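Encode chain A's predicted structure.
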Amino acid sequence: MAFLPPTATFTAALLLLFLHTPLATSSPLNLTGDSLSPYEVLQGYNFPVGLLPQGVLKYKLDESTGRFHAYLEGSCSFSLEGSYQLKYKSTISGIISNNRLKNLSGISVKILFLWLNIVEVVRDEDELEFSVGIASASFPIDNFYECPQCGCGLDCANSNGKVSKLRIKSSFPSI
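Encoded structure for chain A:
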């Protein structure tokens, strides 16, 4: 799921949303059944939907361990505000718990000339902290209320001229 926007969220920059929905409560939803979308599952663990790009086809979640896999049609990449480039593989996996995504794989961010894997996303009140292991950056959660779109991020032709700005509290070096 990845979820780190990352950042596009970045994911760090990972990860953003298409829907303007309220944030989930602080306790996870009962996530049984196949009726929830992967974006609703994110919200159930107190994350915004924008950690995942648009177009997640399906997901698997083991509720007893939090282990998840989210599947895209193919790989996905985009830039955010010209500062961060994000890549999502066709399969994103990790372990999800309330306010924390860890052991992430399938999401990377370009920092300077290197592609680094986003390995963890932690929600701390109204901030999301994205970690690449050796460094981390925090972003306001409202950066992730929209899902980015593969190829164009948040600056797509169908955005009705609205361009979102990625605000950074503390940042990775930009390119």
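The first helix runs from residue 38 to 44.
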